[in-house]
Amino acid sequence: MRYSIAGLALLAGLTVAVDPVEVRGQDFVNSVSGDRFVVIGVDYQPGGQGAISATNDRDVLSDPEACTRDAALMQSLGVNTIRSYNVDPTLNHDECMSIFNGVGIYVILDVNTPLYGQHIDRSNPGSTYTRDYMEHVFTVIEAFKGYPNLLGFFGGNEIINDLETADDNPPYMRAVQRDMKDYIASRADRPIPVGYSAADVREFTEDTYHYLACDNGDSSASDFFGLNSYSWCGSESSFETAEYDVLVEMFSNASIPVFFSEYGCNDPSPRVFEEVEALYSPQMTVMSGGLVYEWSQEDNNYGLVNISSDGSARLRSDYNSLMEQYSRINITLLEASNDTATSITAPRCSSDLIEADDFSDEFDIPSRPSGVDALISSGISSAPTGSLVSVTATAVALPVYGVDGASMSNLAITVTSEANRPVGTASRTSSRTSSRSGSASGSSTASGASATQSGAAHRMSGAVALALGAAALAL
Ligand SMILES: *[C@@H]1O[C@H](CO)[C@@H](O)[C@H](O)[C@H]1NC(C)=O
Ligand SMILES: *[C@@H]1O[C@H](CO)[C@@H](O)[C@H](O)[C@H]1NC(C)=O
Ligand SMILES: *[C@@H]1O[C@H](CO)[C@@H](O)[C@H](O)[C@H]1NC(C)=O
Ligand SMILES: *[C@@H]1O[C@H](CO)[C@@H](O)[C@H](O)[C@H]1NC(C)=O
């Protein structure tokens, strides 16, 4: 086991840190051990888009009490990654990021928000790719680049949602990725991956992948490719009817990691998540796992957990069903490194890669708006930069209830430096322990620590569940 000492945390005591994950060919890889890293994740945006606005001072990673509640439940569930869709980079995320780090959970973050000037408008990408927009994106990078459990950034989510939007937008998507990667190369101390989250619409899924992954002789390629895929619906579905076999074929030569950035069809409901077995099976190792949509119950009815305005939470049966499915995952299979997969390189960009007539085959990427070069070379000096802090409050202060309504008392997080794993799944090497086999992972010392931030619970009250489909988050 490896302990890292992170910056100022020295003053507060030892801070454990997970190993950063990097991209090698088709796989995510633990940069220290070399083991493969496969995403076992959930999408995390309690409150939906309403969780962030120009007039409030919260986002989903700024409330330590809520983060402790959710991290404890996710640690039991077996999650190793969350994705959050929008954050306010001016807020302090040190506690929440340290809490998720402490339970072995990585974070993939969208850099965009629904707010004006903080996303590319798919109906007019040229006029919204501006210096001010890139300053917003770079400020998000500054806020999160210091956390070792930051797995990567999504530069865009479902910008292309039909063939009409597949003409003008692709070069701008690569332009934003290029600027983000150049900023990271200039201002961060490790190569944080940058990718895209795509609508899985089979008439252009493959073109989107090829357009973004190919080598254009510059830094504009995606480092990973997320697919929002809802094709497996209940027990009637199978590997074939959900066309997972088509995806395996489509991505067999992928040169970057491909995973589901959203999955979990909710019709029928409650969900039984039989697609989990397929996704993590030997048949589908070409994919790097996926993120279940989504953690909290909102109006669109995809939640694993029902979070009330007072900050209390009640598990839904979907949570238990997912845990049950996760417990059967073969971690040995997933963590095995694969030299063939990690050494695949991208083909050169060429119009030959693009099939659909209406999909852009333009690889002449727009140049940076004026002023962006200076931001990249000098950094955003006024931007707050986060770093890990010591996690002292491990007990969950907010009330949590099981599916049957019974109170789950004594809920707490167990601090570890290893990626979290589902219950009952053994790790690959004998020197390691599953994070919840308890004392062997060591450092859960603060069992008596009292919870802090009593005001935090009230911040959930603004979590008005807007009726947002997955597609409505498409920014
Ligand atoms: C994958 O690459 C191999 C070797 O280059 C090639 O023969 C095969 O057709 C490719 N498969 C796909 C689905 O592109
Ligand atoms: C879920 O939360 C809503 C809103 O707080 C509440 O009306 C509903 O009763 C809750 N459902 C369960 C099963 O706890
Ligand atoms: C898990 O995967 C490993 C590696 O492929 C294999 O040897 C082992 O038999 C699998 N275990 C189970 C229970 O299927
Ligand atoms: C290694 O990766 C390659 C490329 O994805 C794949 O064809 C092969 O089946 C993988 N090997 C194992 C043992 O999973």
From TrEMBL:
InterPro entries (UniProt xref): GH (IPR017853), Glucanosyltransferase (IPR004886)
GO molecular function: 1,3-beta-glucanosyltransferase activity
Family: Belongs to the glycosyl hydrolase 72 family.
Function, as annotated: Splits internally a 1,3-beta-glucan molecule and transfers the newly generated reducing end (the donor) to the non-reducing end of another 1,3-beta-glucan molecule (the acceptor) forming a 1,3-beta linkage, resulting in the elongation of 1,3-beta-glucan chains in the cell wall.
Native source organism of the sequence: Aureobasidium namibiae CBS 147.97
Region (Disordered): 420-453
Membrane topology: Lipid-anchor; GPI-anchor
Gene3D superfamilies linked to this entry: Glycosidases
Enzyme class name: transferase
Signal peptide: 1-17
Primary location group: membrane
The protein's name: 1,3-beta-glucanosyltransferase
Annotated EC: 2.4.1.-
Biased composition (Low complexity): 424-453
GO biological process entries: fungal-type cell wall (1->3)-beta-D-glucan biosynthetic process; fungal-type cell wall organization
Pfam families named in the record: Glyco_hydro_72 (PF03198)
